[in-house]
Design brief:
The protein is α+β, with helices and mostly antiparallel strands and 110 residues long. It is 25% helix and 33% strand. A five-stranded mixed beta sheet has the order 1-5-2-3-4. A hairpin with a 4-residue loop joins strand 2 and strand 3. It is globular, with a radius of gyration of 14 Å.
Amino acid sequence: MTPRLTTDIWVSAYLTRLRLVDIPVFVTRKGDATAGSVLVKLNTLDGQAQAFQRSFDLTTGDRAWVVLAEGDEGDVDASLAKQSGFDPDLWIIEVEDRQGRHLLDDPSLS
């Protein structure tokens, strides 16, 4: 079994990785440091956004980032607010990039 990083360490690594390539990123909601779930909002600064959540494939054991919500930024924000109401331990990270880069597919962040 592969040991898992605590959420705060993963978030710190993610923020650092984005900042190293000059992609603005902000923690907009801080959750449980040890085991909080993370949602990532990608704001393309044109009124559109996507929200990603980590998913676990029971058949393969793989973890992947999947789209939770996308479209008008206000609608995505409403979806994130709804998720926050369900999970008090939730982290929300906002990435701002006109090119749509979020680096969630970077294997160094697995």
